[in-house]
TrEMBL record:
Residues 67-530 form the Amine oxidase domain. This is Protoporphyrinogen oxidase. Binds 1 FAD per subunit. Belongs to the protoporphyrinogen/coproporphyrinogen oxidase family. Protoporphyrinogen oxidase subfamily. It comes from Aureoumbra lagunensis. Its main location: mitochondrion. Keywords: Chloroplast, FAD, Flavoprotein, Heme biosynthesis, Oxidoreductase, Plastid, Porphyrin biosynthesis, Transit peptide. It is found in: Mitochondrion inner membrane; Plastid, Chloroplast.
Length: 561
């Protein structure tokens, strides 16, 4: 630069541009001179033609994509596959968005907590954020708003059953008899049951209406009359299969406990991983986004690539060379990544169009996955304006029959420490879902008004001041619904796609479970699948090479003689 300005008298503001232009021309020259002899080195290639070569390209940086990238790269040093994780948005984390402000509020715009599992603990430990974990007090009950009152769900069974007045005595007896198998009609033959049908058959109508219906609305934003029991609540559905008495849930649960104990014995969690108590909910001090942020940081530190604002545009299967071509729209134009394996963890609705040219059936299956709209609204009110100022629970669910539009309210400041200044209670409200899609047509002011009305009906004193609004986010396509025929119409089609197109995987919360913990588990399981795919690929290419060289030697024998 100094040379340019002295010799040519170029002014300081022109220097940088001129220098960059010259550097670019020199790079082209070097690449051009080398190209015919030895082919372009991949870095020059990517500079000139925006091409990048990696082993695995992970599309989407939500919990599924981030955890997959983590498990592909962690602990293997130089042997780890080279990974590029590409994300359409400007930040990593997908649905997981944690916010804070300078007044001491920390809140979530997507999921609010996770149920700890050994795999979630392992991931937090390996990502270096075990110290950041926070757990909610496991004795905090969820509450249900019923006939004008909040009623806690029992946490200690059977003791709490006597004080628990959300169910009537006939309702409790029906649920108890059903759960033990003393009164539990058999499942219908050749018919997939909805959550509503399954729960009503096992536990009775009252238990369904007052507990399970609000739970399904609050957690899945779904309609239990449409959701498949087998696909949506797989673990509970399986209890029926395990059960040794009339397909009832309690005998099934006893068998499951034995299974869990055996699994733990055979595969004990590493003592270095953080521990947790049953029933605890978890998060991180500064919110759930701590996890994807830490993973992205570690990936970059270890020489892998994390690219934001890279939107997948198209995929091309391997032709002459072995690699898939993955084309992205980026702020720097179109960029092609060549990868031995690709995993799309973007939502089903974002992938259907992209794989349509490859497989119309799989594309149609992806387009069928329904995602209803949900708004998440975080508000704070002074503690003094609450009927129960200490909010002793983790939140309240509002059954649809009770005419409160909010599906459920998480009492964020009761769950985790330091979420707001001590004089406030912080509430995260979810509103909308598949039985209230009109939420997407409301203005933010109208949504806030609905939320405030719900809080006043359930939690606040009549003279409570207006809410302090911290965050309001409308998710137009929030949570994938596992409706009836999810298995044959969607999952089977995706299995067929993957066997037709080796090296291209589709996954995420529409396939292996929507809970945060399911997405972490997907990351671990999928990483194992990809590793064995890559191992087989390199094995078969070694075999191919040695066969080719054998043939060449044999063919050369007469000539050399
Ligand atoms: C409002 C809400 C509340 C929830 N609450 C809870 C909760 O409390 N507890 C719980 O366990 N679970 C909860 N869930 C569910 C859970 O958060 C999600 O299932 C999980 O975070 C999904 O992770 P994912 O990586 O599979 O998908 P996503 O988070 O959707 O990630 C997919 C990523 O792909 C990116 N992408 C899309 N298109 C492209 C493209 N063309 N190119 C590149 N990238 C692309 C997206 O930008 C996104 O970052 C909630 C979900 C929502 C929406």
């Amino acid at each position: 630069k100094r040379y340019l300005s002295k010799v040519f008298g170029i002014s300081s503001d022109m220097r940088s541009t001129t220098f960059l232009t010259l550097a670019f021309l020199v790079q082209i020259g070097v690449a051009w001179i080398h190209a015919p002899q030895q082919g372009l080195h991949s870095r020059q290639k990517s500079f000139l033609f925006a091409e990048i070569n990696v082993d695995v390209c992970v599309i989407g940086s939500g919990i599924s994509g981030s955890c997959l990238a983590h498990y592909l790269t962690h602990d293997d040093g130089d042997k780890a596959p080279r990974v590029l994780m590409a994300e359409a948005r400007a930040q990593v984390g997908g649905n997981v968005i944690s916010r804070k402000n300078d007044q001491g509020f920390i809140w979530e715009e997507g999921p609010n907590s996770f149920q700890p599992t050994p795999t979630v603990m392992r991931t937090a430990y390996e990502a270096g954020i075990a110290d950041e974990l926070v757990f909610a007090n496991p004795t905090l009950p969820p509450w249900v708003f019923w006939e004008g009152k909040l009623k806690p769900l029992p946490k200690n069974l059977p003791g709490d059953l006597f004080n628990f007045d959300l169910l009537t005595w006939p309702g409790k007896i029906r649920a108890g008899l059903g759960a033990c198998g003393l009164f539990c009609p058999p499942p219908p033959e050749d018919k997939e049951e909805t959550i509503e049908e399954f729960v009503t058959r096992h536990l009775g109508r009252e238990c369904f209406e007052r507990i399970i219906d609000p739970f399904v609305s609050g957690v899945y934003a779904g309609d239990p009359a449409k959701l498949s029991m087998r696909s949506s609540l797989r673990k509970i559905f399986r209890l029926q299969t395990l059960s040794f008495f009339n397909g009832a849930l309690v005998p099934g649960a006893l068998i499951r406990f034995q299974e869990i104990a055996k699994e733990k014995e055979q595969n004990p969690p590493d003592p270095k991983w953080p521990t947790y108590k049953p029933g605890e909910l978890g998060s991180f001090r500064e919110g759930l986004q701590t996890l994807p942020n830490a993973i992205a940081h570690n990936l970059k530190q270890n020489g892998h690539r994390v690219e934001t604002e890279w939107k997948l545009k198209s995929l091309m299967p391997p032709s002459q060379h072995n690699d898939w071509s993955v084309i992205f729209d980026t702020p720097n134009g179109s960029i092609t990544v060549f990868a031995k394996a690709i995993v799309c963890t973007a939502p089903a609705h974002a992938i259907g169009n992209i794989i349509k040219p490859l497989d119309n059936d799989a594309a149609t299956a992806l387009d069928k996955v329904y995602y209803p709209p949900v708004a998440s609204v975080t508000v704070a009110y002074p503690k003094s304006s609450f009927k129960m100022p200490d909010l002793p629970g983790f939140g309240n669910l509002n059954p649809r029959s009770q005419n409160i539009r909010t599906l459920g309210t998480i009492w964020s400041s009761s769950l985790f420490p330091n979420r707001c200044p001590p004089e406030y209670n912080l509430l995260l409200n979810y509103i909308g879902g598949s039985r209230d899609v009109a939420i997407a047509d409301l203005t933010p002011e109208q949504i806030l008004q609905q939320v405030d009305t719900g809080c006043r009906a359930t939690l606040l004193k009549p003279d409570a001041p207006p809410p302090k609004l911290l965050g309001l986010k409308l998710w137009p396509k929030a949570i994938p619904q596992y409706e009836l025929r999810h298995q044959p119409d969607i999952l089977d089609k995706l299995d067929q796609f993957e066997s037709k197109f080796p090296g291209c995987y589709l996954g995420g919360n529409y396939r292996t479970g929507v809970a945060f913990g399911d997405c972490v588990q997907f990351g671990l399981d999928q990483a194992n699948t990809i590793r064995s795919y890559l191992d087989n690929l390199s094995l078969s290419s070694t075999v191919q090479q040695s066969t080719t060289s054998d043939v060449t030697e044999n063919e050369m024998v007469p000539t050399s003689r």
